[in-house]
Write a structure and sequence with these properties.
Blueprint (H helix, E strand, L loop, with lengths): L10 H22 L5 H10 L8 E5 L5 H10 L2 E6 L2 H15 L3 E5 L12 E7 L10 H11 E12 L5 E4 L7 E4 L3 H5 L4 E10 L12 E9 L5
Parallel strand pairs: 1-2, 1-4, 2-3, 4-5
Antiparallel strand pairs: 5-9, 6-7, 8-9
The chain binds S-adenosylmethionine.
S-adenosylmethionine binds next to helix 1.
C-alpha cells in the first residue's frame, strides 16, 4: 500500500515546496568545487572489504547526488537517490550520470516515503537529512530505510550527534527546526543492527569537536541476517 503524502504543514512538505531548492541554491557551488568528501572516503574505506557485494546504493537526502556518485563509482554500483529538491534532483540527473557514465537515478521524495521495493539495496546512506525530518515522521523514515535495505546490507548515517538530544530553530526559515540526536541509536537499540564503525567530526572541520553541539558523526551499521 503506498504511503500517504506528508501533511501540508509538515517540514517535509516545506522542503518539497521550497526549502530543498533553497538549500541546493545556497550549496551547489561549494559542492561542485570539491572532488573528495570526508564522509564518502570513510564509507569507502570501511566497506571496501565487501566491495563485490555492494551493487546497489541509495542515498536519502542526496541533494544533486555528488556524494552518491562518488560512492557508486568506487563500488561500481547502481545509485538511487531521493531528495525533496526538484532543482537538485533535476540537476543531478542531467549531469552526473552523463559525466561519469555511472547508473545514477535521482527521485523527488522524502525519507518517510521511499519509492522502492523491499530489500532492494545493499547500502543505504542517510546523507545528513534526518535532522530535518518531522518528529512525527521519524519512525516512518527509520522503517522505510529498514524496509528497502536487504538483510546483510549496510546502513550509513551522517548527521548531528550531540551529547544531549535537543532541537534548534532552522537558521534559514522561521518555524522549521533542526533536530539533533544520536540517530544510529534508533537502529542499534533493537539489536538488529550492529555498529561497524563510527567517526566523529564537526560541521566545519574533519576532526572531533569538543563542542558537543557542533558534533557530526558518520556511523556505519550492519543489518544482521539473523539477529536471534
Ligand atoms: C545538509 S543537506 C545534505 C545534502 C547531501 N546529502 C550532502 O551531503 O551534500 C540536507 C538535504 O536533505 C534534504 N531533505 C530535507 N528534508 C528531507 C526529508 N524529509 N527527506 C529526505 N531529504 C530531506 C534537503 O533537501 C537537503 O538536500
Amino acid at each position: 500500500m503506498p504511503l500517504l503524502p506528508p501533511a501540508s504543514d509538515s517540514q517535509s512538505q516545506v522542503f518539497l515546496d521550497s526549502e530543498g531548492d533553497n538549500w541546493f541554491a545556497r550549496n551547489k557551488a561549494a559542492i561542485g568545487a570539491r572532488n573528495s568528501f570526508h564522509e564518502t572516503e570513510i564509507i569507502k574505506r570501511v566497506l571496501e572489504f565487501d566491495r563485490d557485494n555492494i551493487n546497489t546504493v541509495l542515498e536519502i537526502g542526496c541533494g544533486n547526488g555528488a556524494k552518491l556518485d562518488d560512492i557508486c563509482r568506487f563500488f561500481k554500483a547502481e545509485g538511487s537517490g531521493v531528495d525533496p529538491s526538484s532543482a537538485a534532483v533535476n540537476s543531478g540527473n542531467e549531469s552526473f550520470a552523463e559525466q561519469h557514465k555511472t547508473t545514477l537515478k535521482l527521485h523527488i521524495a522524502t525519507a518517510s516515503a521511499l519509492p522502492f521495493a523491499d530489500a532492494s539495496f545493499d547500502l543505504v546512506y542517510f546523507g545528513f537529512c534526518l535532522y530535518l525530518v518531522d518528529r512525527d515522521e521519524i519512525y516512518k523514515a527509520v522503517s522505510e530505510a529498514d524496509r528497502v535495505l536487504r538483510n546483510g546490507g549496510f546502513l550509513a548515517i551522517l548527521d548531528f550527534d550531540p551529547m544531549q538530544r535537543h532541537k534548534r530553530p532552522y537558521h534559514h526559515k522561521p518555524g522549521l527546526f533542526s533536530y539533533k540526536t544520536s540517530y544510529a541509536d534508533f537502529f542499534t537499540a533493537g539489536g538488529h543492527y550492529y555498529l561497524v564503525a563510527k567517526d566523529s567530526f564537526s560541521h566545519s572541520a574533519d576532526h572531533f569537536s569538543t563542542d558537543s553541539d557542533e558534533r557530526v558523526s558518520l556511523s556505519i551499521l550492519y543489518k544482521e541476517t539473523d539477529p536471534y
